[in-house]
Write a structure and sequence with these properties.
The structure is a homodimer of 520-residue chains. Chain A is an alpha/beta fold and 520 residues long. Chain A is built from 21 helices and 17 strands. Chain A has a seven-stranded mixed β-sheet, sandwiched between helices. In chain A, strands 2-1-3-4-6-5 form a six-stranded parallel β-sheet, sandwiched between helices. In chain A, helix 3 runs parallel beside helix 5 and helix 3 crosses helix 15. The N and C termini of chain A lie far apart (59 Å). Chains A and B meet through helix 2, helix 4, helix 5, helix 6 and helix 8 of A and helix 2, helix 4, helix 5, helix 6 and helix 8 of B.
Chain lengths: 520, 520
């Protein structure tokens, strides 16, 4: 090891030797030695964002697509705080993420300078693992521990605080950096006994619903699950907000469990067994008066594979136990009559599904068009959908950035509601800066649709002045074309299906990012 | 009390009866009963922001100008998390803020639904006081406690978590709401003995520097301090980042202590006594190798009034003890030759200072033009400056919103660096929505200037590829006029002093918000 290497550089080299090659960063003064060290580690690509929530959301998208740790670099407690909302989503998605937070010089911390805050308390809410580097010499050991931790429990957020003085110190160790990447995230096997118990339960083909989540939503998982379901006459659902689900007409049509509790309860009712495969027990998104939190029938729930366990292996073992083999599927593309005229969420979902190029990645945020498209994607070319796992909004655009950087050969679509897009609108700039092949589709209805729906659910006949003021976004209407151009992203507005088809078709051919405002 | 009132409504009425008349909100489903309750409490003005950091920053600006508690409403842990950075600044500013966070229904929390997180851990980092409402019947008591807490210790952040089911329950209490507002934030008096000790110390007029902060920077505080300083031949500084400082040619010229440690140490050197008046001991903003954290000479520091104590009363008591009287000041407006030609930070500072209408409020964020203007404001019409107290960036635009709402008769200027403006760029929309008389001035140099300065301080001759990529904002250059128009704010770009003067002059006359990009 070069004896002139700083500990900042040693950390980056250790991360890079573990396979991490991108750093999603919004640095400040306490990260300057890390910024300088990046000059010496050109194999680590720095991706700058104008706001930290873009960094953490991009890391989430990158980690979901790569299945290996993503790296963020943020500035002290307040900078890190801006990344928390999207780290909350990453925590729910079990995405492996390593956050490096620069901190004050260790000897300066006690003086409570203006930017000092309780970083550990902030990090605790989203991190499965956290540590502060206590001595410069521990740097390499600690970052390796953070990387390893990020791949535990099926993937989690690991946060490492790096005081500025330690970043600047020279790495003293003469141990060479271990260049072998740590083993990939290995999921523990589900209990064999549990699988056998479930196989026995299913022997007489009772009414069964499988709820798939996590790795069960890979192609292999879905094929095994579909074969089992076909054999048993069972229902098959994906969790409502999967971190990642493969879709398309070459795969079983595993629709998502409905969002609202009433249809979800209905979907699960009548099932003697609701079998979880990498999914958590279905729980109402919010607690509603006179509706239960638990959505599955009492006593029906069992787990073939817990979240964080190897759900694919469990499904294949169950298929073997039941004597069924995964089937290959290839539905012909049968589209119902092409929708024409004004845009509606259904028409938008259907047109996008028809237009998707093979291998596209679709980052979905917002219910308006997200559900219709997800349903329609059963008939599309093979694609990957990424959804908002934790409900912290402002997730879709950054996740699209991370997915595009993780998979440079695939087209990325960000299907986004207008309200939620605003929380991390600065994403557009990073898309332009990195020339990412992302088509941003804004479903623009100039209101917080979900909140107006909730007001409707509580029997509000018409909105009062305050309810209207707090749920409508029409005064002023955001000019999406202007915002996009402001950040260097070409944009158009469409109001009917013909214009949408034409805009989509040119946007899919463009090299860099494009934004289409779809007026509803 | 109307027996049909929900606890959500009771909370709002209790807050309103304590003098709170604005709610800076970005609600979600768990705040729907509060949104509905706002329909019944029209004297509480709901102000919607597209991002929670705008809410908390606006609350900070409102609280600083009103000197009474400001109210925010955010959505669970992730929504609240987005407000933390600006609450960090508010904590440093000792601004009285009450955060209401909607939470899941109490009976739903245990099921760990997607949006569930450790709110208490997040709130701890910024809140001087926090509580969760444990029973619906405690609602009014708890919000009163939160309001009272926000005014303790010279002002602090108080956070109250309000489960959705309790919001919906009917208020059972037949106690009428107490309509008398709680007593205003009364600062405890500084120790009389301490004041007398200091007066004795100063009797033989040793070399003294006064460092003023908090209430010492009001007009009364500055006049008393100036009289004392004149009598003693003492130096007078304001803390580097005051929450609020009155400026103008009718006031003593109290410049801010320099930001970088070297000039700050020089400014304080030679002082036998550095006397703190409502300010904290001067500490280096960051810890730099070979420079001390403490900026004042060893053993020189004593406090006439601690932060959170009544600094004005302490200064007036000291003046009396020394036998001096506050003087009235009215410097003639003597401007050096009007700067011409290309824009420079000095020219910008000087032109704004010359243009300020009487009573303007200037929210300053970013060093590029902030320091030159603050210095130049010694010669301006009387005005109030608000600065970034905690270093969490994205503070200037939201604070301008809050100040404009708190003081509808005063013109507000947001003097803003381009990098920092992006963190809460959604502020522009709220400015347009509320037609606020704010002139946004963007000092646009398309880089993170402070980071390039820091890289320069660490003897970097030229920027490496990564250092350049992480500190420059010129690829693509943000089109500020497009962004502003996208949010409904008219905008112009200026590149020389003549154009800036002309643009400022029309912007000052406009009723709603205006943005001027000042190209550097």
């Amino acid at each position: 090891m070069d004896s002139k290497m700083t500990c900042a550089e040693a950390l980056l080299r250790a991360a890079n030797s573990a396979g991490i090659d991108v750093c999603f960063a919004n640095p400040g003064t306490t990260e300057i030695p890390l910024v300088q060290a990046l000059d010496n580690v050109p194999q680590m690509r720095p991706v700058l964002a104008l706001f930290e929530g873009v960094c953490s959301g991009a890391a989430d998208g990158y980690g979901r697509m790569r299945g290996s740790p993503a790296l963020t670099l943020t500035h002290l407690g307040p900078g890190f705080a801006n990344s928390i909302a999207n780290l909350h989503n990453a925590r729910r998605a079990r995405t492996p993420i390593v956050n490096i937070i620069g901190d004050h010089a260790s000897w300066h911390l006690a003086f409570d300078a203006p930017l000092t805050s309780d970083i550990a308390s902030l990090a605790a809410a989203v991190s499965g693992w956290q540590r502060k580097i206590e001595r410069a010499d521990d740097t390499v050991r600690d970052v390796k521990a953070a990387i390893a931790a990020s791949m535990q429990r099926g993937g989690q957020v690991a946060t490492l605080v790096f005081p500025m003085d330690f970043q600047q110190q020279l790495e003293k160790s003469d141990r060479p950096l271990d260049n072998s990447p740590p083993e990939a995230c290995k999921l523990p096997l589900a209990s064999r006994g549990r699988i056998e118990d479930i196989a026995r339960c299913l022997h007489d083909r009772p009414s069964v619903t499988f709820l798939l989540g996590g790795p069960a939503l890979t192609e292999r998982g879905q094929r095994a699950a579909a074969a089992i379901a076909e054999y048993l006459g069972a229902k098959l659902y994906a969790e409502t907000f999967p971190a990642r689900i493969e879709r398309g007409r070459n795969l079983p049509d595993v629709d998502r469990l409905p969002y609202f509790p009433e249809p979800a309860i209905k979907a699960l009712s009548g099932s003697r067994h609701v079998i979880l495969v990498g999914a958590r027990e279905p729980i109402a998104y919010f607690g509603y008066e006179n509706l239960p939190s638990r959505l599955a029938p009492d006593g029906s729930v069992s787990a073939l594979a817990e979240p964080g366990e190897d759900a694919v292996e469990a499904l294949e073992a169950l298929a073997t136990a039941l004597g069924v083999k995964p089937v290959s599927i290839n539905r012909p593309a049968q589209w119902s009559a092409a929708p024409e005229g004004q845009l509606s969420p259904q028409a938008i979902g259907s047109i996008i599904a028809q237009t998707l190029p093979e291998g596209a990645i679709v980052s979905i945020e917002g219910g308006t068009c997200g559900y219709p498209f997800a349903t329609a994607s059963a008939m599309s070319s093979s694609c990957t959908l990424l959804t908002n796992t934790g409900g912290a909004i402002g997730q879709g655009l950054p996740v699209a950035i991370g997915a595009a950087i993780a998979c440079p050969d695939r087209k990325v679509i960000a299907l986004q509601s207008d309200g939620s897009a605003q929380y991390t609108i600065q994403s557009l700039w990073t898309m332009a800066r990195e020339s990412l092949p992302i088509v941003v589709l804004i479903a623009s209805n100039h209101r917080y649709g979900v909140l107006q729906t909730e007001l409707g659910r509580s029997n509000v006949a018409h909105l009062g002045a305050a309810s209207a003021a707090l749920t409508s976004l029409d005064k002023p209407k955001i000019d999406w074309q202007a915002i996009a151009r402001g950040y260097g992203v070409p944009a158009v507005q469409v109001a009917d299906t013909t214009a949408l088809r034409s805009a989509l078709s040119s946007a899919m051919r463009a090299e860099g990012p494009q934004l289409i405002e779809m007026s509803l």
